Amino acid sequence: MGRVAIVTGGTRGIGRAISETLKKAGYRVAANYCGNVEAAQRFTEETGIPNYRWDVSNYAECEAAIAKITAEIGPVEIVINNAGITRDAVLHRMTYQMWEDVIHTNLTSCFNMARLVVDSMRERGFGRIVNIGSINGQAGQYGQVNYAAAKSGIHGFTKALAQEGAAKGITVNAIAPGYVDTDMVRAVPPAVLEKIIARIPVGRLGRAEDIARTVMFLIADEADFITGSTISCNGGQHMY
Ligand code: NDP
């Protein structure tokens, strides 16, 4: 039987593509979501992948969900920390709530999920954690001090945890997507989006499947020598 993988925010956008790609490859997937029940139900009807509702920023909810998934599907060997939100504003208009929501949903969630699976991964001598960062965590972005800080934090978190997990068969990597055609990017005003696409050397937005294929590469058993890396998947928009 395939390894058990949790994909947070796994019912829509990039997460949905990750969930579907993993299932097709034989992994046993649990897809998380938070508020959009309709999308989650449609996702499960269309893919046959079970959905689990919890808020990844809430430690107790993560704990209960992981216990449920472990009981229903099996011990969790792979976690894709994909759930994320934006609450954009320039700093002089950003509220504390906008800061807190983004930091907790995008970054604290990685701590919550990793902390709650790490003991079992260490015992089993195997684990794969992939954290979805962002080009805007690498380069910064006007109007996104909260999001850029959270995503940049993910990249540091990844490198630190990779060092701790290495001797126990646990790899921890990050993917930094560029602009990918999902609901999150569809919320960007068309004129701004046009300017963004003009700066992408391959000449198009990313597709959710581009990120899903990168996840597949990183979670393979054979990828055990790749840890602490951040793979940019951005059409050449930002290289460093
Ligand atoms: P979407 O907005 O399309 O989907 C977000 C997913 O995250 C949804 O399934 C949503 O659940 C879930 N989610 C949001 N908040 C929570 C929460 N508190 N607890 C559990 N689940 C939650 O986003 P994308 O697919 O575009 O983005 C996925 C990831 O990729 C994010 O981390 C994002 O920051 C990152 N990224 C995206 C880029 C892009 O261009 N799209 C570029 C770079 C990075 P629900 O359906 O219930 O709302």
From TrEMBL:
Entry keyword Oxidoreductase: yes
Annotated keywords: Oxidoreductase
SMART domains per record: PKS_KR (SM00822)
Enzyme Commission numbers on file: 1.1.1.36
Pfam families: adh_short_C2
InterPro entries according to UniProt: Acetoacetyl-CoA_reductase, KR_dom, NAD(P)-bd_dom_sf, Sc_DH/Rdtase_CS, SDR, SDR_fam
Family of the protein in this entry: Belongs to the short-chain dehydrogenases/reductases (SDR) family.
Record protein name field: Acetoacetyl-CoA reductase
